[in-house]
Amino acid sequence: MKAYCPEEFFSRSELDKVQKTRLATTLERAARSDFYGRRFAEMGIRPEAITSAADVARLPFTTKDDLRSAYPARMLTRPVSDMVRLHASSGTTGSATVIYYTRNDIDSWADLMARCMHMVGIRAEDTFQNMSGYGLFTGGLGIHYGAERLGCLTIPAGAGNSKRQLKLLEDFQVSVIHIIPSYALHLGTVKDEMGYTPDRLNLRVALIGAEPHTAAIRKRIEEVYGIKAYNSYGLSEMNGPGVAFECLEQSGMHIWEDAYLAEIVDPETGEQLPDGEIGELVITTLCREGMPLIRYRTKDLTRFIPGDCACGRTHRRLDRIMGRADDMIILKGVNIYPMQVEQVLMSIPEVGQNYLIVLERDGYLDQMRVKVEVKEEYFVEDMRELKSLQSRISSRLRDEILITARIDLVEQNSLPKSEGKAQRVLDLRE
């Protein structure tokens, strides 16, 4: 397949050379900011002494707390008057953080996003419907830019209003959508309820991301719509979407190493981990002008997939995000990630599209209750069958997370839905 740009198929030696050059420029830029200028001086760091990507481990981490402490503009390398855009994170795990962009930063972001979309076969002939939120959240605008940069007819539908979404899909014969995985499954249910048959829609590709999801969720989305769904990764601090993206092989997300220098580190020690080991993703921007970030701790847990990709690209591949370092649940001394629960639930055919993990206290003991939607055809009056399903889910979960959870089977579409990121954990403990 023809590349969108030459960098897409750079050799390993070409990527190493580009990273070295752009890292030096990034550190020189960062030193102009009040935040990094002071930090480098306090730690005796000379940016010019960092001469290779391997040297980056000698630099300090940047955290979300650093972004908050530098609020509103202490990380800027140029005056606010040189900035053309401001975005803020969703604040899912705390107060929002602010990122500034120059005109070149916006253009670079659009090109990276177009590169991602072109990689999975999206072309100017496609009609693209963006079902992501717009505004301070970066997900909507970033992918919107990529679609327009490719020349697609772009429909900024925004989030929610499922009946309108389906009407737009049908009326304009939309071929590509961007959608959050949990909402894709909900929209699929509405589609079936409204009697939409496959021949009424022209869909062939879905871009999914913004929330961690398992391979089983992706498979369900593909089956519901009869399409191919490609995983994406991004975060507000790194522009937004377009940091890493799956190719047609669907075997990991290529992180664009001409724009980002990525590491996987031990969340506890900060030590770099080898390919194949799960840890926290740390990223340094290589092209950001207005607000470069050095060794930013994303809190996202993943790994570098060893080996080469069959597509021929040498940009390293990230595995799907397995959760966040700060999402870990500690229950009865056991460390549990919500994605472990989802992986088990979505492997059971009777389980529907939605679930909720409820943490509660029974006397002095912490307990986990998992509310699980059951597909309509399996939610029968025969209590023996439901008890058997309940027992099977409990047993499979115990094998995975090593504790016994209480399982509540509920009717399909009875759990709360969200048009944004799905809430999977409700902590009712004090």
From TrEMBL:
One of its GO terms (biological process) is phenylacetate catabolic process. Residues 81-284 form the AMP-dependent synthetase/ligase domain. Residues 333-429 form the AMP-dependent ligase C-terminal domain. Pfam families: AMP-binding, AMP-binding_C_2. The keyword Ligase applies. Its EC number is 6.2.1.30. Monomer. Belongs to the phenylacetyl-CoA ligase family. This is Phenylacetate-coenzyme A ligase. It comes from Desulfomicrobium baculatum (strain DSM 4028 / VKM B-1378 / X) (Desulfovibrio baculatus). The lineage of its organism: Bacteria, Pseudomonadati, Thermodesulfobacteriota, Desulfovibrionia, Desulfovibrionales.
